[in-house]
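Protocol step 4 of 5: obtain the predicted structure for the target chain.
Materials: sequence only (see below). No template structures provided, no constraints applied. The aim of this step is simply to have a reference model before the mutagenesis design in step 5. Sequence pasted as it appears in the construct record:
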Amino acid sequence: MCGIAGVVNAAGVTKDDVWAMLGSIRYRGVDAQAVEDLGGAIVGNVLLKIAALENGRQPMSSTDGKVWVVFNGEIFNFIELREQLQAKGYRFKSRCDTEVLVHLWCEKGERMLDDLVGMFAFFIWDQRTQTGMLARDRQGIKPCFYAPYRGGLAFASEIKAILALPKFERKVNESALGDVFSFNYCPPPQTCFEGIHHLPPGCFMRYGAGRFSEPVRYWRWPLDGERVDASQADLENALDEAVKLQMRFEVDGGLFLSGGVDSSVIAHRLLPQWKQPRLDAIGLRIEEQGFSEYAYAERVATDLNINLSALDIRPADIADIARPVVRHAEQPHGDFSFFLFYLLSRRAHQMGKIVMFTGDGPDEVMLGYRHNAQFFSGMTRARFSMRNYFDLISYSTRQERQRVMSPSFLPHTEGAFDRFMGIIEPFGGLEPMEQVAAYELTSLMPGNDSPKSDRMGACWSIEGRAPFLDHRVSELFARLPIESKFHQGVGKHFLKRVAQSYYDHDFVFRPKTMPTLPIGEWIKGPLYPWARDILALPDGGRFDASGLQHMLQEHRSGMHNHTKPLRTLLMTKLWLQEFFSEGA
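Step 4 output (structure tokens):
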């Protein structure tokens, strides 16, 4: 876990400006910080120690001092790459993964990206040619944002680092904010800040002749082409290889064990390779029925002799941490599982952990979310409607938006369906289920799901590791026939068949419980004053104050269930307060 920031070919920028960028994200790397002025680029890094630093501080140069890199993430196969480069005569001054990048650039240039197994965002600067490359990992596990600045380009691991630049204009991207009320997040590559964009997953931007190119794609999800079934041994071998590479750390670690199938499978494959005396795990425990799988986590922990700690979540926790959650999420999300990841990461930090394994990954690629089971059961291609699917996943209806939004803001919410169709348009030749998977992989995952673990972990200096997100495992899942992904109303069917060799049928095939909070019930009771006060905050004239309070009262009385729109409204109000203190 690190943080990177820099400005390239921009007028009047100083090292102090980049230091200010780093200061806003220092929690991402509490062990070392540095900035280098490389002439055409000023770059910096904050570093969290995962292994011995030993000449591994960043920004890092090649042995001759001509090629520099700032890097966030982990190159899991760096040992193998280093051995290959040493055989070609490259000399190394450290034993960290960062140095592999500068030598691999010298050897292969942009083609180096094909060799990397890991999660990463980095900027390479070649002083010999005044060229460079800003790159992001295949699936967008690690974040990377960029924005035009003073005739050049600024980049950073988090948006707030770009906002820290002198006189950077902070302005709401109204259409992106409008999309949040359908998608429940801002679909990348745009953000809710005007002028700031995601570097898309699986892409890089080359720098040369004084400017950056548009994003260039070097990897795509293999959703089209030949379907390849896989055996249990195929998955286990791929997972074991991913775990082996991801075990390359020298700090204390553990596991987030939800009790769901995904983290339970990871527990089973992780334990035989665990190098510490005992595997510590943290599981969520929520009293309300249907929101906690802690009893299942206990079963896994007992079977595997894992040391499981319970993290109890109560309504008061939400009010206490709402503002830091919004500050670190950086964009409005109505997904209250951000709170869960924040609390899990805080507990891991309190326990002295640095690296925490997770079960992230299978839901998006194999239609594992509950709404997919709800929609696809009994569905045929002839009866399939993308409009109906979009309406199912939308977090507010047009009628709800009309009730609570001002006439000036409402039109910004009208383009969400067109945005959705634009996301899936490149996948129009696929079966409908695969089009949905394509949406969840290329938009939902990098726009909502990956930021939860990265941002909520980063603020507590916790690095998440997800063996399912090793791109070779993900590609295995993506290439499966559709009936292996979704069968007889069950998503992730292939993975569940494998899990059934570890756990009993009822454990594996029970109805899915999503890791979220009973926020709808809590804002009827103990969190009602909190919700009422947030909805009354200034918002720049985007919402109708009486309409918001009336919606809350209808929900509180049980007249209507407005949980989804209220979740998004609450987080949007807090976001406007956090980043635009006068409501923008």
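Step 4 remarks: The two ends are 32 Å apart (CA to CA). The CA atoms of residues 133 and 206 lie 4 Å apart.
Proceed to step 5.
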